[in-house]
Amino acid sequence: MNETSEKKYSLEIFPKEIEELKNTIKTASTKIMEEYIERMRKTWPDRPEEMQYFDEIAKFWGTREKEIVEAREEGKKVIGYTCMFAPIELILAAGAIPVRVSSGLYDPVKLGNRVVPVEVCPVVRSTIGVKMVGLSPYLELSDALITSLTCDGMTKLSEILSDYKPVWTLCPPRLKDSEQSISFWKEELKAVKEKIEKLTGTKITSSKLKSAIERLHRATRAFRRLQDLRKGNPVIMGRDAMLVNQTLMWDDVERWTQKTEKLCDELERRAQGKVWACPLKTPRVMIAGTPIIWPDNWKLPNLVEEANPQGVIVADELCSGDRFLYDPVGVDEWTMEDMFNAVADRYLLPSTCPCFTSEDGNEDRVNWIKARVEERRVDGVVYHVYRGCMLYAMEYMRIKKVLDKINVPVYYLDTDYTREDVGQIKTRVEAFLEMLKSRVEF
Amino acid sequence: MIVAGLDMGVQNVKVAIIKDGEPISYGLVPSGFEPEKAAEQAFKQALEKAEIAFSDIEHVAVTGVGVELAPRVDSKLSIISADAKAAVYLYPSVRTVIDVGAEESRVINCSEKGTVLDFTLNERCAAGAGAFLEAMARALEMKIEDMGMLSLKAAGTVSISATCVIFGESDVVSLIHKQEPKHEIARAIYDALAERITSMVHRVGLKPDVVLVGGVAKDVGFAAALKRKLETEIIIPKNPEFAGALGAALYALENAGGKLK
């Protein structure tokens, strides 16, 4: 539960090594973040000024970290979470700050390798590594963590993290369309709600919950507005939209909403003036599969949008992207019971995580992808999978067969938290884009 | 009109020259440490055979991993597109192209026009490509050229798995220790590689006719193993290692506005 009690998993590292690793990785990653933002600017020379806000928030060890440190000094609690099953509304209602803590940093993976085998998904290995040296500001600042027992990796990660922090697990049922599942899930959320209340010393009243739901409704509206703008001719490059989506994971929700609305205003003006972010014949790409997490793991988005021929990412199916805030909480009546049930439903029923199964073979996920392919006029899908990510890897054939039927090419791309394979992936991505381009032109 | 295709491969640099709408000569030089110089040498070879000068070439299209190192680039295309173009040019009925190179192997579905419809590449490790055979031949202490012929004598009594070059090697060593006949081990090596390629073929779909290109296509042991696994006829062109360069040359011809004969 805390740093002094007996550790179940974690290994000892000498303080000197911790300091050294922390500094090296922090310096390297800071440089990489700056480089990536610069590259985004280069690809899209008339990138709107409104993006600068998101560039700033995207910087780890920066403005947002300071704000959270200050809020914490004033007595606010910070609740970290690993998956999008964590009920943000409940965290906000209790006056706490939600932050997503799954790591997108490459270098800490080698530390994670000391604790778990290299076959384990790199998000898990990196998150372990990041914790071992205290690298992630958001993970370090968290007073407690909500983990989701979705895949094997996340399940065991949750045990490992409990060596360092209070961990509250949420167990989503594998089947979501049954009475037992829904009532089980509600019990899970109820337990977490009580823990949030205890940690913050704040009772989640109906007016507090209503206010939190409304704040997230506004955020969802802004989020959807941004994604809807990606349906037509490209007014925003994919990487920039993805960056906006990612910053929501640690930014102040209300300010993020305002800034996103402002960005959308500008993008709408551009659409009216027919100012496009890239040539209209640029192949329109969707990224499906394992979550892509800022900052280091911008590898695939970079390759797609900097390739020759260039592609533009108009949609993704990532829980760290398009799916994150897509679904609003649907409240009928603003009673405590109704609101709580609506929150529980929102996190379970629309989720298209491959951790679920059903008689029709996770049809919800298939339909979600098909709907995005149609509305965003997707020319081709890159199916992104990390080594060790079993659920996404195993569902590939299911998705490919569906996409084959509607004549949308899909490319399976397996990668890892490493910079070594950039060359190989480039060959693959460029060949895929070349193929899409010949179809677009045809 | 004279145009050229340049394939900057991992192991070899290859050049194909098209004159008056017809391929007339080829050049091949190991990439070595200076692929740029190798490319110049490969051009020299091909140009000498065709008795033309470098300055006579109107357009050079480049493909392969080392595109950045090419001495002249008028246009570039991926090796996937190049393979498909070359295959359909050589055999118009081809719809599946299998290219097994030194460090990369590819399976491509293409249209009757030679455009790419679907493709897949080996996973990031070299166990699915020619480098695997080279490592295994070393373990058997024989030349790779001899391993293919030898494997044809085998009945298929042992097997290994090609999950990775290193594990494959220790698999082979343990078969040697068990005193399994060398020809059986050789066949097991080819079967393992063919198994990897076969699973790639089924991922994109096996559509006849099938052509096998790339340097490894010249290996009789591998071609036989692949035929056994796919249970289909496989066309192997006369110069399979030049498919990429030929495809690039055909692309150069398109870009320069030339016509095929």
Please tell me the overall pLDDT of chain A.
94
Largest beta-sheet details of chain A:
4 strands, parallel
Mean pLDDT across every amino acid position of chain B: 93
The strand order across the widest sheet of chain B is: 3-2-1-4-5
Instruction: State the share of residues found in helices of chain B, binned by percent.
Output: 40-55%
At CATH level 2, the architecture of the largest domain in chain B is: 2-Layer Sandwich
Structural class of chain B: alpha/beta
Instruction: Provide the CATH top-level class of the largest domain in chain B.
Output: Alpha Beta
Low confidence ranges of chain B: none
Characterize the quaternary organization of these chains: heterodimer
Q: Mind telling me the C-alpha Rg of chain A? A: 21 Å
Walkthrough of the structure:
The complex is a heterodimer of chains A (442) and B (261). Chain A has helices at 15-43, 51-58, 63-73, 88-93, 109-115, 122-132, 137-141, 152-161, 179-200, 206-228, 238-247, 253-272, 299-306, 336-348, 363-375, 390-394, 396-405, 422-441, and strands spanning 78-81, 97-100, 144-148, 167-170, 284-289, 312-316, 380-386, 410-415. Chain A is an alpha/beta fold and 442 residues long. In chain A, strands 2-1-3-4 form a 4-stranded parallel sheet, with helices on both faces. A 4-stranded parallel sheet of chain A has the order 6-5-7-8, with helices on both faces. In chain A, α13 links the parallel β5 and β6 (312-316). In chain A, α10 packs parallel to α12. Chain B is α/β, with parallel strands linked by helices. Chain B has helices at residues 35-50, 79-90, 130-139, 144-151, 165-177, 182-204, 220-230, 243-255, and strands at 2-8, 12-19, 22-30, 59-63, 75-76, 96-100, 105-110, 116-121, 210-213, 234-235. In chain B, a hairpin with a 3-residue loop joins β1 (2-8) and β2 (12-19). The longest helix of chain B has 23 residues, at 182-204. At the A-B interface, β8 and α18 of A face α2 and β8 of B.
